[in-house]
Amino acid sequence: MLTIHSALSWWAKSRPDTPALVLGGDRVTYGQLVPWIDRVAARLIDLGVERGDRVNACAANGIDYCVLAFAAMRAGAVIAPLNTRFTAHELAEIVQDHAPRLIFAGDDQASKFTGCGVPVHAMAEVDGLRGGASVAPPREPYPDDCVVIISTSGSTAKPKGVMFSNRSMCDYAMAAAMEDGVLRDGGGVIIVAPLATSAGMVQVVHYSVLGCTLYLEPVFVAERFLQILVEEPIVSFAGAPAFFERIAACEGFAEADLSHIRMVTAGGARVTPRLFQTWAAKGLHIRQTYGQTEAGGNSTVMPERFAAEFPEKVGWGGMFTHHRVVDARGNDVPPGVEGEILIRGPGMMIGYWNNPAATAETIRDGWLHSGDIGVMDERGLLTFIDRIKDIIVSGGLNISAAEIERAVLEFPGVEEVAVIAAHDDRFQETPMVALYPNAPIDVAALIAHCNGRLADYKVPRYVAVRDEPLPRLATGKISKPALRDEYRDAHLTLPRVR
Questions:
Q1: Name one Pfam family in it (predicted).
Q2: Tens digits of per-residue pLDDT, 251-268?
Q3: pTM of this prediction?
């Protein structure tokens, strides 16, 4: 059957000595992993976990966390990771919505669930089942079972639970292997994104289905990341552009031998020309990709031959994944014309947990409506413009916040930036920049810099230089809702800079 566990079992049989999960000096092979998963799955069933039950997990990235996730799937249940950065109040709302049978928590997280009314188990219980007799859990998972619920970032609304099935996750992994070929024979990959995010848990599943060796890290430390890249047989890694910036800033990056790495991809934000050139000097062309949690991860493939020629583009649809760009009425627009990006492919979510109305609104006639603006060229290559909700409408003209952010990030001394709409008596909305510097910022020089790169109506009228980093969502993304709330009166409290 097409299930995640059947894929893992295949690797345990065909490559039993291949490392599956690595954390520091701790290595678990596929031959060791599958029996461990079976023991934990049997334990979950003994604890009363039924098919379709949710099992929440709240802990730092670790081998035991991955085993718990695979064991829940093996038992026909649903792993529903919880972000360790959430407060007890935020977690209580999600737990109430998920109605889990059990919660597994790290030692530093357990107190957040006091009084939640759900049995809380220590993650150490999973590690305690690493050894022991082989067991065969009394039931098998089904291909169309929901196996994972991932919460969205909440960057535009209250977080929603995105559901994936065995089939959708396996289909996505196999399509990705056929499309780029880099991971067709396994290889080493690094996972540093929290397992509560799609960049964490979904990638763990995808790479494991392909028989890769997953190098887990509980947090991102650039120096440690570079060390792994140099010392271990890593063939591919992915991350946000900020990861690439911090790695490139490490002492020793210029001398590091990365010739064994075959593919690097970035998503979540635009790669600046300067960053692209920095990595190209190492022989690695960053491939920008596009996707979102609901799409199952990346929905585009950027061929290496195009990465250097069209660094601003995010690729085209994969072997089984297709895109459309449509106007407000749902009609396809010609190449070169902006519109909403629609996605259809095997890795798509099967729906939002407990939210059929949102599911029906997002998936219409088999197409996932992304809420993103993009443009497609004659080759079918897609360029991501911005989130629809991040478009600033000034005097009837649409302005992409992301475009302004890219221009500001090129100015020396800017560490973090976000662009939001400020009120304007004449134009209704006007661009405002909130930035966190790593060196003194001359605002007049910054505006002059923007004047040379942006049309006049796109140049920010307000600039807030902050003494502290920009607020973040629990997923690590910059929280524009928090910034909009903080600067709702920017037109009254900040000086106009042009």
A1: AMP-binding
A2: 999 999 999 999 999 987
A3: 0.85
Mark out the alpha helices in 28-145 (DSSP H runs). Answer: 30-46, 63-74, 88-98, 124-127
Residues 213 and 268 in one domain: yes
| Pair (196, 285) in one structural domain | yes
Q: Which of 351, 253, 293, 349 is nearest to 156 (CA)?
A: 293
How far is residue 416's CA from residue 331's CA, in Å, rounded to a whole number?
37
| Unique residue bearing structure tokens 């221009």 | 407
Same domain, 314 and 436: no
Say if CB 7 and CB 14 are below 8 A apart.
Answer: no
Instruction: Give yes or no for residue 148 having a pLDDT over 80.
Output: yes
Residue 498 domain flag? no
Same domain? 357 vs 408 = no
CA nearest to 233, candidates 261, 255, 264: 261
Residue 389 falls inside a structural domain: no
CA distance 6 to 208: 11
Claim to verify: residue 126 and residue 232 sit in the same structural domain = yes
Hey, which residues does 151 pair with through a beta bridge?
161
For residue 498, give both structure tokens: 């042009």
Confidence of residue 134 (pLDDT cuts 50, 70, 90): confident
Q: What is the pLDDT of residues 370-406, one digit of tens each?
A: 999 999 999 999 999 888 888 898 987 889 898 899 9
Query: What CATH number does the domain containing 94 carry?
Result: 3.40.50.12780
Mark 269-283 as b/e (b = at least 16 C-beta within 10 Å): bbbbeebbebbeebe
Q: Which of 382, 405, 426 is the last residue of a domain?
A: 382
Based on the fold, state whether residues 442 and 352 are members of the same structural domain. Answer: no
Alpha-carbon separation of residue 110 from 48, 267, 333, 335 (angstroms): 20, 32, 51, 52
Q: What's the mean pLDDT in 100-110?
A: 97
Q: How far is CA 284 from CA 190, 273, 406, 446, in A?
A: 16, 14, 21, 31
Burial 240-265 (b: 16+ CB within 10 A, else e): bbbbbbbbbebeebeeeebeebebbb
Question: Is residue 274 in a domain?
Answer: yes
- Measure the CA–CA gap between 337 and 383, rounded to whole angstroms: 11
Instruction: For residue 156, name the pLDDT band (cuts at 50, 70, 90).
Output: low
Q: Which domain holds residue 358?
A: 4-382
Are 155 and 251 members of one domain? yes
How many CA atoms are closer than 13 Å to the CA of 460, on its beta-carbon side?
Answer: 35
> Which of 382, 405, 420 is the last residue before a domain boundary?
382
CATH number of the domain at 450, please.
Answer: 3.30.300.30
Contacts of 24 (CB under 8 A, 6+ apart): none
Per the CB < 8 A criterion, the answer to whether 168 and 296 are in contact is yes
